[in-house]
Amino acid sequence: MIKCHLSTLMGQHKVNVADLARKLDIHRGSISRLYHEKAIRVDVEHMDKLCRYFECEIGELFEFVDD
Description:
CATH topology: 434 Repressor (Amino-terminal Domain)
Structural class: mainly alpha
Order of helices and strands: EHHHHHE
CATH architecture: Orthogonal Bundle
Largest sheet: 2 strands, antiparallel
CATH superfamily: lambda repressor-like DNA-binding domains
Number of strands: 2
Distance between the termini: 6 Å
Number of helices: 5
Shape: globular
């Protein structure tokens, strides 16, 4: 299972879904699905924007957890 740590990063940076979507020009629904770990697929461009914004590596944003 892939875990998304977007909610943790957003909390650390004190940014909400609407503001992040606006700043990164990503649809609010896409951010919301990642935030709530409901996303089925993720756009590589979105991952790039998120990593650049949070100044993190992809491994800090997503993690593989063995069920």
